[in-house]
Amino acid sequence: MKQYILIGLFLSLSALAMANSSIGEGSELKKEIKRTINYPEFAKEIKLHGLVMVHFVVNSEGSIEVKEINASDSDLADYVKEQLERIEKVERTSEGDHFVKFRFRYVEM
After folding, report:
1. Per-domain residue ranges for the chain?
2. Per-residue pLDDT at 108
3. What architecture does CATH give domain 2-104?
């Protein structure tokens, strides 16, 4: 039953993300997120993969506040939340709601 609830949450947040994502391709916010959030070391050690979907707000001070997070793994969710909230002084043009999806996949090298 839990799986069906989680899948429903993913699908609804995914639909919102596609409809409402306001992070432009060349925006500083998108660049900073790409620089900040990478496949975490703890996940590499155990070959963890998963999906994290986040709804966050950039407030008027330029800080990120995570409003909702859904993930296939709670450790990945915690990692993404911590990393997003570390980003400081986001440009004012990014103020408002954002929806982002992160896919973490282990790749043998």
Report:
1. 2-104
2. 83
3. 2-Layer Sandwich (3.30)
